[in-house]
């Protein structure tokens, strides 16, 4: 293989269709990592993860997003504590739907500059050596390493894949869920927040589309409630349970009651 061949095709020499498939799989893993690890496990303590699964999710998020667990969790908990008020980091009712939808990542970066907010809402997140010395210290180096990997494996086309990976979470999570999830859709429950279910099939964002259900049962590991709703994240949690890599702590019931699975201890 010549240098020109490598620049054009990379080490794997895949087709554009194959590269698209690889991109869909990679971004899907990122979505799964966000909904299971950052959201349901770390932010709300709805389940426990085996250290092997937890460390995989932490590494993957560092590599593909550069997000720090403590920061993401603090922003999300602050959102629940002050939802639809001026203290909510990303409320479309306060800031406008276009601001949250298209500038969601910017709102996130602005929120994590608030050290008092991080201190108050970021408690209980990982603080081991790896988190302190690598993941929270070298945030941009993770996505930089991903760029090197994409270029090495796929050549110049790898830069396109990398760009898509960098936009995936900022748009779908920070924009669509935080924006449209409080702006339009249907509601199963009249919770105090303006949260809506964007659609009954939680496929694209791993179940986070069922946002009204989540705000009604914020510490439930399962986001679907009605028979026609599908929570893909819950499917992966069930798989992790079968592999003995996860244990569910709490589940909602349709009557707004709770079924305690495990004692409430730190996740």
Structural overview:
The chain is mainly α and 267 residues long. It has one domain. The protein is 57% helix and 6% strand. The chain contains 12 helices and 6 strands. The strands form 3 sheets. It has a two-stranded antiparallel ribbon with strand order 1-4. Strand 5 and strand 6 form a beta hairpin. Helix 9 crosses helix 10. The C terminus is likely disordered.
Q: What's the story with the biggest beta sheet?
A: 2 strands, antiparallel
Summarize the amount of helix as a percent range. 55-70%
How large is the radius of gyration? 19 Å
> How many separate helices?
12
Summarize the structure.
The protein is mainly α. The protein has helices spanning 3-9, 16-43, 51-64, 69-81, 92-95, 97-111, 115-121, 129-135, 139-154, 157-180, 211-216, 232-242, and strands at 47-49, 201-202, 230-231, 246-248, 250-252, 258-260.
């Amino acid at each position: 293989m010549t240098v020109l061949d490598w620049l054009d095709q990379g080490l794997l020499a895949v087709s554009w269709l194959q590269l698209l498939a690889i991109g869909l799989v990679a971004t899907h893993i990122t979505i799964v990592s966000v909904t299971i690890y950052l959201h349901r496990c770390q932010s709300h303590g709805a389940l426990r993860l085996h250290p092997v699964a937890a460390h995989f999710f932490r590494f993957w998020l560092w590599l593909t997003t550069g997000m720090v667990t403590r920061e993401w969790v603090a922003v999300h908990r602050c959102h629940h504590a002050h939802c639809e008020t001026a203290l909510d980091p990303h409320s479309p009712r306060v800031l406008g739907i276009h601001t949250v939808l298209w500038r969601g990542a910017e709102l996130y970066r602005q929120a994590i500059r608030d050290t008092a907010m991080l201190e108050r809402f970021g408690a209980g997140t990982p603080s081991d050596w790896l988190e302190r010395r690598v993941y929270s210290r070298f945030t941009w180096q993770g996505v930089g390493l991903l760029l090197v990997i994409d270029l090495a494996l796929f050549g110049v086309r790898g830069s396109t894949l990398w760009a898509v990976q960098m936009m995936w979470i900022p748009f779908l999570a920070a924009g669509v869920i935080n924006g449209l999830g409080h702006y339009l859709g249907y509601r199963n429950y009249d919770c105090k927040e303006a949260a809506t279910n964007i659609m009954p099939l939680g496929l694209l964002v791993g179940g986070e589309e069922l946002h009204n259900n989540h705000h009604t049962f914020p510490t439930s590991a399962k986001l679907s409630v009605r028979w026609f709703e599908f929570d893909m994240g819950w499917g992966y949690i069930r798989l992790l349970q079968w592999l003995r890599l996860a244990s569910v702590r709490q589940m909602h019931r349709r009557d707004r009651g709770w079924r305690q699975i495990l004692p409430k201890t730190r996740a």
